[in-house]
Amino acid sequence: MNQEQTISFLITSGNGPTECCMAVAHVLRTMQIEADAVGLSLDVNETPSAHGIKSAVIVVNGASAQHFIRNWVGTIQWVAKSKLRPNHKRQNWFVGVVQLDTTRRAIVELRTQDVDIESFRAGGPGGQHQNTTDSAIRAVHRPTGIAVVAREMRSQHRNKALALERLKQVFDAQTVADQQASKTAQNQHHSQLERGNPVRRFNGEKFREIKK
């Protein structure tokens, strides 16, 4: 049996214009589709912008997490004419995907008294065996607004434990990302984006991948 893996990473538009924030939103949607296809769970904390997402911290859990993120880490290129600036000649927009190391840094403690726990009724996988009681759990960290949901288990108690574990993972990943941002790591990374070879390229408003 493959061992469960947990990996944290950051999608960032760096210092890029609004079109790069739109690209981050496209990347996040595509990641979710690909993760669902292979049975991986993604927990996401977004920093929104007016027309997309400035950055997003993501924690991926599952047996193939390492293989999944290997296909994304690096520079992502989006080739599309700007809808915000129709007369703008530029059509190449770049974002970065960076793996976060949550093991070698001093992580701020997440206090359980700062977490709100809510139960709710939610269907999930399993057909007739899916949740029929209010066993799904949403955990919200009030100071940061980070929220996660756990609904896989039939027991509310087990879903609560899973939600708290996921919340801690996302909280730790966001802490690391904030530490890097305070050292201008995101800005430095973005300044290098266009000089690197993109690991994946996408085209147009439908964000279709350009195969190598």
What does this protein look like?
- With 212 residues, the chain is of the alpha+beta class.
- The chain has a single domain (5-102, 110-209), classed as Alpha-Beta Plaits.
- It has helices at residues 18-37, 65-70, 156-182, 185-193; strands spanning 5-12, 41-49, 52-62, 74-79, 92-100, 115-120, 136-141, 147-150, 200-203, 208-209.
- The strands form two sheets. It has a seven-stranded mixed sheet with strand order 2-3-1-5-4-9-10, sandwiched between helices.
Strand order in the sheet with the most strands: 2-3-1-5-4-9-10
Number of strands: 10
Share of helix among residues? 25-40%
User: Class in CATH?
Assistant: Alpha Beta
CATH topology (fold) name: Alpha-Beta Plaits
**Mean pLDDT, nearest integer?**
85
Strand percentage, roughly?
A: 25-35%
* Total of helices: 4
Structural class: alpha+beta
Q: In angstroms, what separates the terminal alpha carbons?
A: 33 Å
What are the secondary-structure elements, in order, as H or E?
EHEEHEEEEEHHEE
Mind sketching the topology for me?
Blueprint: E1 5-12, H1 18-37, E2 41-49, E3 52-62, H2 65-70, E4 74-79, E5 92-100, E6 115-120, E7 136-141, E8 147-150, H3 156-182, H4 185-193, E9 200-203, E10 208-209
Parallel strand pairs: 4-9
Antiparallel strand pairs: 1-3, 1-5, 2-3, 4-5, 6-7, 7-8, 9-10
